[in-house]
Amino acid sequence: MFDKLFEARQKAEEIKKRLDQITVVGEAEGGCIKVTATANKEVTQITIDTAYFDGADKEELEELLAVAVNQAMRQADNVSQAEMQAATKDMLGGFGGMFGQ
Asked: Mean pLDDT, the chain, as a whole number?
């Protein structure tokens, strides 16, 4: 049983490392504002097209940044959930043998 728990912990660490390598992008204003993050929800880059930046007011820019960040975080959630579901399915298959199934 402890072997299975250790294996589950290792699998979780592998998933976290894999999620650190997956990039998601949120965009606003037709791609003029882009937020890049990892699937672990760590923002790694924010880019704003210079032409858009010159004409935007502060409130509009803040609102669009929030839109792009939230979009990137939703994508990160989707990727993370898919990875966890796949790992859980694999682990439950292993645990099923432990309980005679």
From this structure: 86
